[in-house]
Amino acid sequence: MSCSSKFVYSKDYATYRFSDDHPFNQMRVELTYDLLKESGALKDEDIVSPRYATEEELALFHSREYIEAVKKASVGDLSEEEGFEFGIGTEDTPMFKGMHEASSLIVGSTLSAIDEVMQGRTDHSLNLGGGLHHGFERRASGFCIYNDGAVGIKYLQKKYNQRVMYVDTDAHHGDGVQWAFYGDPDICTFSIHETGRYLFPGTGYVNERGLKEGYGYAFNLPIDAFTEDESFLDVYESAFRKIAAYFKPDIIVSQNGADAHFYDPLTHLCSTMKIYERIPALTHELAHEHCGGKWVALGGGGYDIWRVVPRAWAQLWKVMKDQAPFEGELPATWLEKWEPEAPFSLPHTWHDPDGSYKKIPRKPEITEKNAKTLKAAMQFINNQIHYN
Using CA atoms, how far apart are residues 253 and 296, in angstroms rounded to an integer? Predict the structure, then answer.
């Protein structure tokens, strides 16, 4: 496939920072950027400087009242009681100085990525600073203040009249985006994630299928804790192919959380670097099959910012450039630069060696559970195809 890609990036992503000990740390974008630079895979001509989203653009999804509350929190004028109403000032999403501006940049970066594709300057675009999928219309949630994915999809509808397929491979359910379009038949959401029995936000079950006109356009694959590569990829690929063929999108927007890895401290899945090659490779293939190549990719979760996220997101970029995945050793220059700052030894290879984590004794049971979940989802898809 002949295609071009753009990399939306700003050092100012680092201003989206709750505290020094908060698990959400945008330093992971800088680490990825530097890894790609040191690997020779990211050129200056690939990079697009983003803009800030306007308040009018934020209001495509978020309520004016909520935006005003974020602005007040940004300058220290929002009380704890007021903040509680909007999910601001919680342990997960504390207030910080400049939070409106930092969050507006994240949204503006996603809009910049969309414009690059929709105005014909590139086939694919990547905003690793984005993918903040838990934000709601009038409430912050799960480290997410403004929901750049939801705003971006509204923007695609209003400005470009697009039917959008949103695919979310974060270990946490993409709840904010799903509920934003739960009644909209022109937006299809598909999320594969660790089951909500164990993990925030506790949603994303197979029976969450949309509402009224949007019924049949929300799809979820809640996989069991300790799921490994083979089962993850089997259910993901089977469902994604079927859903994309059913919905026939104009463009794919993907959220590429890197928190399904066995090193991630906030989740319970046991994937390795293998899935972070195949996940984007399938999106790439289906974007060309159904959308003329139109694909906007976002970042997302990922809380081992040293050992996991840079390698996973670097492979995403290689796929978007239609190049072979990285193999072998990581660049020595990158390791020499960052290892002194890392809290533990960094991996020296792109892939995880066999035996990197303890054997999962429940593997057959987990695989069987995931297969049953897939069967239920596929049965619903088949019913929808027949009905339509």
Answer: 5
